[in-house]
Amino acid sequence: MAPPSGSAAPDGMEVSDTGGHYVVKENGLEFRHMPSSEPTPVDGAEFLSRFKKKFEVNVLERPTENELVFEMLGVDVSFANALRRIMLSDVPTVAIEHVYMWNNSSIVHDEVLAHRLGLVPIAADPRLFDDFEADDDDPTDRNTIVFRLSVTCGKAPPKDTAMDETVQAAEGDGHTSMTGNAGLDQVAMEASALHRATNVGHADRGGVAHILETPGRPYTRHVYSRDLDWVPQGDQVERLESIRPVHEDILLAKLRPGQVLELEAHARRGTGRDHAKYSPVATASYRLMPHIEILKPIYDEDADQLTNLYEPGVFIIVPTTEGGHTRKAQVSNPYACTMSRNFMRHPVLKESIRMTRIPNHFIFQVESVGMMPPAVILTEALRVLQRKCSSVIRLADEHAMD
Amino acid sequence: MSVNEVKVKEAEFEFEVRGTGNPASRTFAIGNEDHTIGNSLRHVLLQNANVDFAGYSVPHPSEPVVHIRVQTSQRSQMSAIHALKDSCQTLFEQCEIVLEKIEEVMPETKADRLEIEKITEAEAFAEQDMEQDYDEDAEEVYEDE
Predict the structure, then answer these.
(1) Cα-flanking dihedrals φ and ψ of residue A82, to 5°?
(2) Are the Cβ atoms of B48 and A59 closer than 8 angstroms?
(3) What is the pLDDT of residues A57-76, one digit of tens each?
(4) Beta-sheet strands, E only, within A105-162
(5) Which of residues 16 through 45 in chain B touch A, CB cutoff 8 A?
(6) Tens digits of per-residue pLDDT, B124-138?
(7) Which of A60, A93, A316, B25 could form a disulfide with A332 if both were Cys (CB 3.0 to 4.6 A apart)?
(8) Residues in chain B closer than 8 A to A276 (CB atoms)
(9) A155 and A259 in contact (C-beta within 8 Å)?
């Protein structure tokens, strides 16, 4: 377990730097303020030297390349929350903002399609772009990415010879005609349909089958995000590597034969504060490290019960010979604990454990959408916070000069 | 022409100081900011022995304005605005320490930072070069005349 980041309270609980500790009561988590034992730092330099001594960062898990779980010790809640808020809403990203429709004869309305396009995450590093100064600023190759989407659904292909004539008749009339073909050999029809579906419908990603031909369903052209073509402007070809959406299999629209989709989409930089499509994280959250203390030893059946009340691994059973008991419970992995208060319903267990949270020990979980790795989002968030501080200093200086 | 009518409105001012008299106590109204900077600055301000009182508020959630109230102790002779600037600087340096630690623990962030710095440097050079090539005031010299 990580060492407590503050001094100890009289009853042994960890106290935060600002003086206080967390207690889990029946009605929830309580934060009790207590005077801090250390005197307040004299100036910024002392604060920073104290901070430097206590501060720690450790990576805990990397479940996928877009998820990061790490812990931060020695920071205050306000700092951790500031980082979380900035990751969510102030780290800029690039997303489609304006969509110019030239032809849309699909059943998806213009604005609905434009909304969907906006939500498609784009794998472009936002730091290589400039901001749009104002809404009516000119789009340049430095602040806009242009995509073009040009899709037509052709006529249903002529029936291939592998198909039965009866099935041809069935498909030509649409999906309601199946019932009209009485006297068909049902097994033969299903077999040929299965053959078509496996060979034609579910092709590999390379030989992309845009048309999903499932028996009984109309012939449709599915428009995916991979159909968005990047149109490099100016010197973007040299400056940027190929720009594509993060995921190529996002379904945007479905077209029937004869329907056309032709549009140009302009992507620009923005922040989550403006629209959630610009947020670089699926979500970013933190929790405080749980801490479980065993006040009175728990034996035998009580120990079994306790272990079952928590996530696997939080408590383990160890054999013991104390007082004639066979086994007792021991805290093994409080990190996995989700602070369930179920144990308070059992009179014995209620008195035997105390759950608290270790102050100033944060476990962050950052899940990136994909345009930037989560560690980079974290560092960008810190730089945004620095920029905010610098801007306040600058404003204060300007004000002093007036 | 934008359909996006529900844009977050910018604050009318960026920075205002309210309060008169003894420069030891002031209220700072910062526009286009919220709890993010308000709470962190408040915490850093409180960790300064010269500061007697520090608090922040967001007068209305619909307006992006945050008020930070700072009162410094009389014997410290530090003005409120000085305390605010000091705390901003301290918070800035705290971020710097955190960034350094993160680069140690997650080396991919260091590689990423170096790459971005390389790109921005290259662009800065390119711009400089362009500016040097184009000299508006140079006289045209016609050699054959």
Answers:
(1) -60, -45
(2) no
(3) 999 999 999 999 999 999 99
(4) 145-152
(5) 16-17, 28, 30, 33-37, 39-44
(6) 888 787 777 656 666
(7) A316
(8) none
(9) no
